[in-house]
Design brief:
Number of strands: 5
Number of helices: 8
Structural class: alpha+beta
Helix content: 40-55%
Distance between the termini: 21 Å
CATH superfamily: Tgt2/MlaC
CATH architecture: Roll
Strand order of the largest sheet: 1-2-3-4-5
CATH topology: Nuclear Transport Factor 2, Chain: A
Length: 204
C-alpha cells in the first residue's frame, strides 16, 4: 500500500474502530472495559444499520455516543499546534467543531465497513492510580491483522477519554497535526481557510 493510501486508511480505520466510547462508561474505573464493551455495542449498532438502513438514527447514535467522551477539544488544540495561540477564541471553537463533525461524519460512514472484523482486546496491567493508559486491540480484517493502541487519559473529573491512537505504528494525532501544517502552508496560515477546507481524509 502506498504511503498516502496507508495514511488515509489509518485515519479511516481510527474513525471506524477507534472512537468507540459510550457516555455511560465515562466514569468506569477500567479503560480496558470501556474499549471492549463499547466496541461491541457500536459494532452491533452498525450491523443493525446495515440491515435496516436507518442512517439518520445511526448517525445520531454515533454523535450522542462519541461527543461526551472523546476529547475533541483537546485533540483539536494539539492538531492546531502553534496556531492555537495565534487564533482567536472564535477560530479555535470553529476549528474544534469542524474537526469533531468531520471525524464523527466520516466515522459514521466507515464503521459499517468494518463490522465483520475479528476484534480482540489485549488486556494490560491494572490501571491503579494511572491517569494515562494505553489500551491495545488486535483487529483482523480481510486476511490482515492490525494493531491499535488507544491512548486514554483521565481528566480532572475522573473521566476516561480518548486522546490519541496509533495504528500499526502510525500516530494519528501526529498525522492530523502534519495535515494542519500543510494546509497552513497552503493558505498562508489563515485559520479560517484551514477550517473551511479541513477533511480528515486528507483530500482537501
Amino acid at each position: 500500500m502506498k504511503k498516502m493510501g496507508l495514511m488515509v486508511f489509518a485515519q479511516r480505520f481510527w474513525l471506524a474502530l477507534g472512537l468507540m466510547f459510550a457516555a455511560q462508561f465515562a466514569h468506569a474505573a477500567d479503560p480496558y472495559e470501556i474499549v471492549d464493551d463499547v466496541t461491541n455495542k457500536l459494532v452491533g449498532a452498525a450491523r443493525d444499520f446495515n440491515k435496516d438502513g436507518d442512517k439518520q438514527a445511526f448517525d445520531s447514535k454515533v454523535l450522542d455516543t462519541l461527543e461526551p467522551v472523546v476529547a475533541f477539544d483537546y485533540i483539536a488544540r494539539v492538531v492546531m499546534g502553534d496556531y492555537y495561540e495565534k487564533a482567536s477564541q472564535q477560530q479555535r471553537e470553529a476549528f474544534a467543531e469542524t474537526f469533531k463533525k468531520d471525524l464523527v461524519g466520516t466515522y459514521a460512514k466507515g464503521i459499517a465497513t468494518y463490522v465483520d472484523s475479528d476484534i480482540q482486546l489485549q488486556r494490560g496491567a491494572d490501571v491503579g492510580d494511572k491517569r494515562r493508559v494505553t489500551v491495545e486491540q488486535q483487529v483482523k480484517y480481510q486476511g490482515a491483522t492490525h494493531k491499535l493502541s488507544y491512548t486514554m487519559g483521565k481528566n480532572r473529573e475522573g473521566q476516561w477519554k480518548l486522546i490519541n491512537l496509533v495504528l500499526n505504528g502510525a500516530n494519528l494525532g501526529s498525522s492530523f497535526s502534519s495535515q494542519f501544517e500543510q494546509l497552513a502552508s497552503k493558505y498562508n496560515g489563515d485559520v479560517d481557510k484551514i477550517t473551511a477546507n479541513w477533511s480528515s481524509s486528507g483530500n482537501s
